[in-house]
Structures are given as C-alpha cells and as structure tokens.
Amino acid sequence: MKIVSIHERTVPLESETSNAAISFSTMTASAVVVEIETAKGRFKGLGFSSYGRYGHGGLLNERFIPRLLNAQPEDFIDQAEGNFSMLNFWDVLMQNEKEGGHGERSGAVGVIETAMWDAWAKSEDLPLWALLARDVGHADDGGVAAGETVIYGSGGHYRNDAVDAQDIADEARKCFDDGYAWFKIKVGGVSPVLDNKRIEAAIRVAGASQLIAVDANCSFGNNGLNVYLKQIDEFSLRWIEEPVNPLDYEALTATIKSIQTPVATGENIFAVADVVNLLRYGGLTPGRDTLQMDIVLSYGITEFLRMLSFAESGGWSRRDFIPHAGHQLALHVSSGLGLGGHETASVLDTPFSSVSVDTKIEDGYAYLSDKPGIGIEYKPSLYKYFDGMLN
Ligand SMILES: [Mg+2]
Asked: ω before 165 within 30° of 0 (cis)?
C-alpha cells in the first residue's frame, strides 16, 4: 500500500446553535482526502472532523501529513503478517509524539485515520462496518447484528430565536416520527424553570421519561449537591450527560452518588490513558452508565479499540459505549463492532445530522448498506464540504 496524496481543507460550519457551554457559530472542521494505491488500484478515502472542536489544519499540515508522505510503503506493513496494518499506520502518525497532552492532536490524528479507514475499506470493496466485523470482530452476545445498530436522536439545542417548550415538543415529535429510539435535549443553558418546561414537553411527546435524556455540557460545575441537578433527577430520565467537568473524577463520583439517574460521559476525554482514570476513579457503573468517547476526536479507531479493551477487562460491555456525535465513522463502528448504539442530530441539517441516504432508520434501529467505505459520499449535507477536493 502506497500513499499517493493527502489534502486537508478547513471549513466553517456556520451553525447558529449553542449548548449550555459554547456557541457553534464560529466553529470550523477539517475535511481530509487520502489517496492510496494498492495492487487493486487507486482509492480515495474521506475523513471529516467531529462536532464540538475546531479544524486541525495547522497540526495536519505541519506534522501529520508530511510524516505519512515521507514514510516508505514498508513502514505500513506488519512484518509478521506481511499485510498492511492500521497499527503501523498509526505508529507512523505518532512518531516523535510524547505521551500525554492529548489536546487537539488526538483530533488531527483521528480525522486522518478516518480517511485512511475509508480508503482501506474501499480497497477491500467493503463497507467499514463489514471490514471491522471481519477483521476485529462483532460483539458475540446475540444482540443487535452487524450492519445494524440502535440509533437515537439528539437536539434541543439553544438557538438565538427559539428556546421554548413548544420547539422542544416539535423536535421530539419529529425525532420519534423519523424512527429514532429516544431523544436527548440540552439543559443548563437557561433558567431551571424554563429547562424544566422543556423536559416536561419532551416527555409528554415521548410518552415515557425513559425515552428522554438530557445533556448538561458540564454546566453543573463541580457540585454534587447542585439543587437543579436534584430536580432533574426526579424526572427519572434515561441519563444525565456530562453533569460536571470531564476530568474532575471526584466531582463526578460525588454527583453520581447524589442522584438515581444513570450518567453518560466521555465525549471530552481523548485517550486510553484518560479512559483508564475515568473508569478507575469516576464512580461509573458497568451496565448502568454510558461511555461516549468520540472516536474521531480520540486518535481514531486504533485508540478506541484500546479503550474498549481496557473497559472490557474491568467488566464493561461494548454495549455500554454509545460514541459522540453523529459522524459516519461512529455509525459504522457501532454496527461493525456491536456497540450500544449511535447518536446523531435528528432535527438540524448539518454534517452531523441524520445518516447517509443509503442507511434506513426504522423502529429505533439504523440499517446500513453494503456500499464500500463509510458513506460520506451518500450524505449531501456532509459531502458538500469536499467539493473540488476529489478531482
Ligand atoms: Mg454531549
């Protein structure tokens, strides 16, 4: 396998939404195209940043793209197996990178690794979910089959012109009408009185509080006795997401002890070393709480497999993982490995909304197609960012 070329473009997302912590209006993302040559021909792989962080053009163009282009074809070969190895590819990317300090680096590596997985799957004439099921292995537990995954909708963002309960009800209705399993809304960005009305409106549409989750985006500070958190707890929702700072494990433990509702967290930690600390010291419980590490932001699938491995050694199941946040890579990993589900924005028309058009959503499940790769070409709201990059 030889790398022919790599190109990155930093693009504005221009979303007018916000959560309790940040606005997305000035956010950027990186679109990456990797062209490879194998004995079967040339293939172009596409990668796109995840949501909630910025583009990675500086890091990619200064360090990671030159590193790959300067490598020799044999550098990507597993010497024992004699085959192309994604582990070797990852090792080339991480040459001369110290441990720790993951910051933005993990997202740069993740987006270029995504493009490489897409190219490699295309060279094998397989959708990525099937390549992963074949080479890594799907969950062997009799649950949801490879090529399928549970899918839920997220929404309920705060927008400049609309934060009221009626908007939430409309979004929730669309989410369930479109076939998603449950709906998640933002909390913590307006007064508790208004947030409670939003939650009540969503539950009314859903018909059951277990079909509604909330995402606090760390807005409850580090106080496990937060009064509003206790109020939300009384709704008996599916989960409360990121109640406190992602790295304050003592506060997370105290929070979990103070409420009955399960907790979901992990979208803002980016390396297996941080996952080790979260699972050791965060007070989370396998089978009850949900882990949301973002695969694209966390050095890609190679590092995500290390996270799964560590978690499974401590009693967690793959089904406890539902990765952040609406990208095609997570959709394929969830269905290829047998994770607990897939999150995507169910109401807005953004690159992280819905799924590629070749994917069917029905009765809470997503059914993926057999088209090779991760399917960015079949998602117009995302593919438009690659305009002119594939000539
Ligand atoms: Mg979140």
From this structure: no
